[in-house]
Design a protein that fits this description.
Number of strands: 0
Structural class: mainly alpha
Number of helices: 4
Distance between the termini: 52 Å
Largest sheet: none
Protein backbone atom coordinates (compact mmCIF):
# COMPACT_ATOMS: atom_id res chain seq x y z
CA UNK A 1 0.00 0.00 0.00
CA UNK A 2 3.00 2.21 0.08
CA UNK A 3 3.49 3.80 -3.35
CA UNK A 4 6.99 5.25 -3.18
CA UNK A 5 6.11 7.62 -0.36
CA UNK A 6 3.52 9.56 -2.32
CA UNK A 7 1.34 11.76 -0.10
CA UNK A 8 -1.80 10.31 -1.70
CA UNK A 9 -0.94 6.79 -0.59
CA UNK A 10 -0.09 7.98 2.92
CA UNK A 11 -3.40 9.84 3.18
CA UNK A 12 -5.29 6.79 1.93
CA UNK A 13 -3.53 4.55 4.43
CA UNK A 14 -4.31 6.97 7.29
CA UNK A 15 -7.98 7.14 6.27
CA UNK A 16 -8.22 3.35 6.14
CA UNK A 17 -6.74 3.05 9.63
CA UNK A 18 -9.08 5.73 11.00
CA UNK A 19 -12.12 4.02 9.46
CA UNK A 20 -11.00 0.68 10.91
CA UNK A 21 -10.67 2.19 14.39
CA UNK A 22 -14.10 3.79 14.14
CA UNK A 23 -15.74 0.54 13.01
CA UNK A 24 -13.94 -1.50 15.64
CA UNK A 25 -14.94 0.92 18.39
CA UNK A 26 -18.62 0.86 17.37
CA UNK A 27 -18.60 -2.95 17.09
CA UNK A 28 -17.01 -3.25 20.53
CA UNK A 29 -19.50 -0.85 22.12
CA UNK A 30 -22.46 -2.71 20.64
CA UNK A 31 -21.12 -6.12 21.65
CA UNK A 32 -20.01 -5.26 25.18
CA UNK A 33 -22.45 -2.65 26.41
CA UNK A 34 -25.24 -2.84 23.84
CA UNK A 35 -24.78 0.89 23.23
CA UNK A 36 -24.22 2.74 19.99
CA UNK A 37 -21.62 5.43 20.29
CA UNK A 38 -20.07 7.22 17.36
CA UNK A 39 -16.41 8.08 17.24
CA UNK A 40 -14.42 10.32 14.95
CA UNK A 41 -10.87 9.02 14.91
CA UNK A 42 -8.25 11.44 13.69
CA UNK A 43 -4.72 10.18 13.72
CA UNK A 44 -1.51 12.08 13.28
CA UNK A 45 0.64 9.36 11.78
CA UNK A 46 4.28 10.18 11.24
CA UNK A 47 6.12 8.13 8.64
CA UNK A 48 9.84 7.55 8.56
CA UNK A 49 11.75 7.10 5.37
CA UNK A 50 11.56 3.50 4.21
CA UNK A 51 14.80 1.53 4.45
CA UNK A 52 15.80 -1.77 2.89
CA UNK A 53 15.94 -4.95 4.96
CA UNK A 54 19.73 -4.93 4.71
CA UNK A 55 19.95 -1.41 6.14
CA UNK A 56 17.47 -2.24 8.91
CA UNK A 57 19.39 -5.44 9.67
CA UNK A 58 22.57 -3.40 10.00
CA UNK A 59 20.87 -1.09 12.50
CA UNK A 60 19.61 -4.06 14.51
CA UNK A 61 23.00 -5.81 14.58
CA UNK A 62 24.81 -2.60 15.62
CA UNK A 63 22.64 -2.41 18.72
CA UNK A 64 22.90 -6.11 19.63
CA UNK A 65 24.11 -6.91 23.14
CA UNK A 66 27.02 -9.33 23.53
CA UNK A 67 25.20 -12.17 25.30
CA UNK A 68 23.13 -14.51 23.08
CA UNK A 69 20.29 -14.57 25.64
CA UNK A 70 20.07 -10.78 25.54
CA UNK A 71 20.18 -10.86 21.74
CA UNK A 72 17.31 -13.31 21.75
CA UNK A 73 15.28 -10.93 23.92
CA UNK A 74 15.89 -8.10 21.41
CA UNK A 75 14.91 -10.29 18.44
CA UNK A 76 11.82 -11.58 20.24
CA UNK A 77 10.69 -8.05 21.09
CA UNK A 78 11.12 -6.94 17.48
CA UNK A 79 9.03 -9.88 16.33
CA UNK A 80 6.32 -9.38 18.96
CA UNK A 81 5.99 -5.71 17.98
CA UNK A 82 5.75 -6.68 14.27
CA UNK A 83 9.00 -4.92 13.38
CA UNK A 84 10.24 -8.11 11.70
CA UNK A 85 8.51 -11.07 10.06
CA UNK A 86 8.75 -14.68 11.20
CA UNK A 87 11.23 -15.45 8.41
CA UNK A 88 13.38 -12.51 9.47
CA UNK A 89 13.13 -13.64 13.10
CA UNK A 90 14.37 -17.11 12.12
CA UNK A 91 17.22 -15.64 10.06
CA UNK A 92 18.38 -13.48 12.96
CA UNK A 93 18.05 -16.37 15.40
CA UNK A 94 20.04 -18.77 13.25
CA UNK A 95 22.67 -16.21 12.27
CA UNK A 96 23.26 -14.39 15.55
CA UNK A 97 22.07 -16.69 18.33
CA UNK A 98 22.36 -20.31 17.22
CA UNK A 99 25.71 -19.76 15.50
CA UNK A 100 27.14 -18.13 18.66
CA UNK A 101 25.90 -20.98 20.82
CA UNK A 102 27.38 -23.54 18.41
CA UNK A 103 30.75 -21.76 18.29
CA UNK A 104 30.99 -21.53 22.10
CA UNK A 105 30.05 -25.21 22.40
CA UNK A 106 32.80 -26.22 19.97
CA UNK A 107 35.36 -24.19 21.93
CA UNK A 108 34.60 -26.15 25.08
CA UNK A 109 35.14 -29.57 23.45
Amino acid sequence: MYANGMPESRNLMTQMIEIGIERGFRRYQLAVSDVYQDIDAELAIQYTNPVTWETYLGQIVQEFPDAPSERYAVIEELYNKNHISHDQFMYLYEEFIESDIDSTDSLGT
